[in-house]
Write a structure and sequence with these properties.
- By secondary structure, this protein is an all-alpha fold.
- Helix content is 64%, strand content 0%.
- Helix 1 packs antiparallel against helix 2, helix 2 packs across helix 6 and helix 5 packs parallel to helix 6.
- The mean pLDDT is 94.
Length: 185
């Protein structure tokens, strides 16, 4: 596993740093398997490193970077980390969108966002349904669109099962995947 270099502004526990390391390692493995360019691999890696950089920050730190708006507290770290990354020099809109929406999905994502969404959900440290997650992770290099649709379906189903509200971004992401699937059939 490669060493991670979190930004100086990051607020993470050792457990969160371990999660970020696993997500980064998984995303790098997929980049190698898919033989993406060095530049694209680096974009994916930056998104992975930044996605939970403020996950363990308190509300005052999150508010320093981004207004909460309608983001639930448990999801606010994505928009705040994206704003912090931009404030500290990240200019790639795809990387920033990946970080901002990694917990909810985003119909406008490029490959960096899609791969981060997958890696964050499928990283091997997850405690639930490990065998199914590992099987999905093993398919990403060969079938990224199919696995993305399967992971999004799992996540939407979980929200429904738990009776949680589903954000507009999540529905738009889900519908974009369904639209792409039906147009390729």
């Amino acid at each position: 596993m490669s060493a991670i270099e979190l930004p100086a502004w990051a607020v993470v526990t050792p457990e969160r740093a371990a999660h970020i390391t696993r997500v980064t390692s998984l995303i790098e493995r997929w980049a190698d398997q898919r033989r993406v360019s060095v530049a694209e691999r680096e974009r994916w890696r930056r998104a992975a490193l930044l996605h939970d950089a403020l996950r363990d920050a308190d509300a005052a730190v999150l508010a320093h970077y981004a207004p909460r708006g309608d983001w639930p507290a448990r999801l606010w770290h994505g928009p705040a980390a994206a704003a912090a990354a931009e404030r500290h020099g990240e200019t790639d809109r795809g990387v920033l969108d990946a970080v901002r929406y990694h917990s909810v999905g985003f119909a406008g994502w490029d490959h960096a966002g899609r791969m981060l969404y997958l890696a964050d959900h499928l990283e091997p440290g997850r405690r639930h349904d490990r065998a199914a997650l590992a099987a999905l992770a093993a398919r990403v290099a060969a079938e990224p669109a199919a696995v993305l649709a399967a992971v999004a379906a799992r996540r939407v189903a979980r929200l429904v099962h738990e009776g949680r509200p589903i954000r507009k971004e999540t529905w738009e992401f889900w519908n974009s995947l369904r639209d792409a699937s039906s147009s390729s059939a």
